[in-house]
Amino acid sequence: MKIAKKFTHYWFVIVSILSFLAGWGMLAHSLKPVTASQTTAINTAANTAALPALPPIQAFGPGTGTSSGLNLITPSTSQSNIGLPRLRTGGS
Amino acid sequence: METYTFRAMNTDILLTAQGSPSRIREGFELARHFIQASEKRFTRFSDGSELSELNRSSGTPFQASMDMFTVVSMAQRYFHLTRGLFDPSILPELQRVGYDRSMEQLRQQGAAPLFEFLAAGEHPSFSEVELDERRSLILLPSGMSIDLGGIAKGWIAEQAARMLSDFSSACAVNAGGDMFLIGLPDGEGKWSVELENPLQPDRTLTTLRVNPGGVATSSVTKRAWKQGGIPRHHLIDPRTGEPAMTGWLSMTVLAAHACEAEVFAKALFIGGPMECEDIARSSGIQLSYLAVDRDLNIWGTQKNLEYAYVH
Lengths: 92, 311
Description:
heterodimer, A: 92 residues, 2 helices, rod-shaped, B: alpha+beta
């Protein structure tokens, strides 16, 4: 009984050491993983070439879209209103 | 020109007229009396007003005064012409976001928190309001309450100006930015109306040169408050029940009538850059409009370019 117990003990130790060494060897000889930053760079480069250029951000402003038809108004020269009451509008 | 100012409808009223001073003073008194009487009729902040009585009567026919019937009839017409963007029946939504008391009280006391109100929920469409012109009866569908604040202010300004014109060759009534102009001051080809800077109301962004008629501006910077830290304003988009977010700060409309200008200033603001022109065109009403964005740029259709001048 004592011999069987010792045999089992040594068996587990040897198998453990051999398994560890085998795993080490497999990892040491496997292909190196590609890092996340390398993957992104590759994909981005590929996608950029396929996508059409975005319009400038001003194109999203009011007035420039074809459905709104609004224009940016640049006020012109001043008009005199001396003597007239001061009428103001701006919401209440 | 003679001017006369007083406070009514929670805003500053300015009357101005050209002619004999004694005659004009008579006209000023008449116009002021009309404005103050109309304020009592159309306010929603007084339980004793005719509007409050109308709202309490929902579900049963209400015998309306001629003025109330006229304004509610116009409101229903503009509801259709603006495709529902002008909708007096958004009162529950307005109250839910905190505008349940006068703006003066709201500024002093702050808004009630959102949880004090039940969700506004579904209510009947304003198009379901029934009007009996012959008997001057208004039937609001059960559960409906309405706010006529904006359209009534425009209508009151125009009626007061028409009264004043009996005493004057040229006159204007300005009710906090909603105004009606009749005739032209001597030697002038147009009226000058200053457009306020929405971010600094004491400053002028530009001066508009306008023909006689109505002018009105809707802005999100004047009637604005916070509810539990959330910025709110009074221009409710009926499609969402929430204050409209368009990227604009104000919308100014010039039209033949003051109430038209008022209604469309609100509707075009809510419609925003992508819908405003379509709404204006499909209404069939002659309108000119100018929007101010957050960078204080002024936007408008090509035909509006003639109206804006540097101050």
